[in-house]
Design goal:
Beta-Lactamase; elongated; 16 strands; 5-stranded antiparallel β-sheet; 4 domains
């Protein structure tokens, strides 16, 4: 092979190798880099989402545990009388609710003066007075208290659950201390890896449970995010020179802050391993592509070199044996050479014809199309408004609080019930007073009002009568009274009207759930619902609502 052919093959090899590497590596880097960035983003989001779901699930578990304990103690106050518990039933009940797991440390009964009347447990607390305790003072306006961690008379950190049971003469309290160790085990039950842990803080930032890093119960945590908020928040936080990924959420009516933290390096370790694996695979693919390209280029150039050598050899033979070529062969060669450009010309003509677009949209038609689209949008908006108006009362399910005109809402609800009331010869009298705009849930208030009005009509359907609705304002609340001239409620049933499944209606006329649901909804709105009734005279329900509800509503 001549030196010129060798130089030509070397140039071909270099250019072929450059072009093949460029064609292979550029897409590889672009796709690999984009995939790396996307994987890093989504995998990082997945780590955060997984930690936040872990915190939310643990919050639900802790709240379920506490509600279970509250339900136990409430059931005891409803099932046993004070005399039975003091006569010995308290010891038996305490043994039953312990369930062999040591959930509670002790249990006791406290009267309305704060004196410990009955005690079951390892401490000498009988006869102690709690009238000055924060939890006792809180029970004067509530029926339930779950305390923060505190020392108390026993001088050891503990939580208590206190349930108030009213009596005609006052009230008594069933108070139980949760086992701090058992409760801490529940809170700390989601340890992940070597540094992942969960703990509780109170509103002052004091530890309520033990931690691996940071402090013991009742010590200040210096946690910087103690303002109440909705949902889970995740932040980076430095503790002792180490960076932690902290997810925190308020639980149990914003009483405690549940914090789960894990060293950021450990939390993202699986992601880093996956990313390094991705980098290794990409580099391995790069090496394979380069080696494969090198081999293919070498084989192609070798094939071309062999073809050129064979061609040169054949060409020499042809030159030696074709000195007597005929004119016909020359003519055939010319015809063949002309056929190639003709074929190319035909191909180009067809390609040009294919490139010519069909006639598009005329310019003068564009405004009409836009106007038609705008008209379609107008009709869609009109349909939306119609369906919104139709569903305004019958299918409203939103429960978000909003600024509400109470008098206007009552007028709408009276109009809804008026058709049925006329059929039963029942009249409505509405006396609206000047009211401020109230921040409340319109849908929940509608449900409360509708239920009370329906009950009033039911109470008079046999003889007809009058339902008087009146509104007036107080300092920081508004009041609504619903007074009917129905049959009234007997005294012995008056205290039970808000109990689930209790009803004075005949069989098939009611489930007994309406007023119980209303009572719960009123508490969620931060209000109160009272009832007064006299047999044969009528019944009056008085609904009190705050103008601005307390933060987070009220637990029910």
């Amino acid at each position: 092979m001549s030196a010129a052919s060798q130089r030509r093959h070397a140039t071909l090899y270099r250019r072929l190798l450059e072009n093949m590497l460029l064609i292979c590596l550029v897409p590889l880097f672009l796709v690999g880099g984009a995939a790396y960035l996307q994987f890093k983003h989504y995998a990082g989001r997945m780590v955060l989402d997984q930690q936040e779901r872990l915190v939310l699930n643990h919050r639900d578990f802790i709240e379920s545990y506490l509600r279970g304990r509250i339900a136990e103690l409430t059931a005891i106050t409803n099932q046993y009388t004070l005399e039975q518990l003091r006569a010995g039933e308290l010891e038996r009940v305490f043994a039953v609710i312990q369930q062999g797991a040591g959930i509670y440390t002790d249990i006791g009964i406290i009267d309305d003066r704060g004196d410990h009347m009955k005690y079951v447990g390892p401490y000498n607390l009988e006869g102690r007075n709690y009238s000055g305790s924060q939890w006792f003072l809180a029970l004067k306006s509530r029926y339930l208290v779950v305390s923060d961690l505190f020392m108390g008379y026993r001088a050891v950190p503990h939580f208590i659950i206190a349930v108030k049971h009213p009596t005609p003469a006052g009230f008594w309290i069933l108070r139980a201390s949760l086992s701090t160790d058992y409760f801490s085990q529940i809170v700390e039950g989601i340890r992940v890896g070597g540094t992942g842990e969960a703990f509780l803080l109170d509103r002052q930032g004091l530890y309520q449970t033990k931690t691996l890093v940071g402090g013991d119960p009742l010590q200040p945590s210096n946690f910087p995010y103690l303002s109440p908020h909705r949902g889970v928040r995740t932040v980076d936080l430095k503790v002792g020179g180490r960076t932690f990924l902290c997810s925190h959420v308020w639980i149990f009516g914003d009483q405690w802050l549940l914090v789960f933290r894990q060293e950021r390096a450990e939390a993202f370790a699986p992601l880093q391993r996956a990313l390094w694996t991705w980098v290794f695979i990409t580099l391995a693919a790069l090496v394979v592509v380069c080696l494969t390209t090198l081999a293919i280029a070498r084989n192609l150039v070798g094939f071309v070199a062999r073809a050129d050598a064979e061609k040169e050899s054949l060409h020499a033979q042809l030159l030696a044996s074709s000195k007597m070529a005929a004119v016909g062969e020359m003519a055939a060669g010319v015809a063949h050479e002309l056929n190639n450009p003709l074929g190319i010309i035909e191909t180009l003509r067809t390609w040009i014809m294919d490139l010519v677009p069909e006639k598009g949209l005329a310019h003068e038609d564009v405004p009409e199309v836009i106007d038609s689209a705008r008209k379609i949008g107008d009709q869609v908006e009109r349909c939306r408004r119609i369906t919104h108006d139709l569903l305004k009362f019958s299918r409203r399910v939103e429960s978000e609080r909003a600024r509400t005109d109470i008098n206007a809402l009552l007028g709408e609800m009276l109009g809804m019930v008026e058709h049925r009331a006329k059929a039963d010869n029942v009249r409505f009298e509405f006396e609206p007073g000047p009211l401020p705009i109230v921040v409340t849930s319109p849908s929940r208030l509608q449900q409360i009002v509708l239920n009370i009005l329906n009950n009033a009509v039911d109470a008079m359907e046999a003889r007809g009568g009058l339902v008087a609705v009146r509104t007036w304002a107080r300092e920081d609340s508004i009041q609504i009274s619903f007074k009917d001239s129905g049959c009234g409620i007997p005294e012995e049933n008056l205290q039970r009207v808000f109990e689930p499944f209790f009803t004075t209606k005949p069989v098939g006329k009611g489930t007994g759930l309406g007023l119980a649901v209303c009572y719960g909804l009123v508490q969620q709105l931060g209000g109160e619902l009272e009832v007064q009734s006299r047999v044969g005279i009528g019944t009056t329900f008085t609904l009190t609502l705050p103008v601005v509800p307390p933060e987070g509503g009220r637990s029910v």
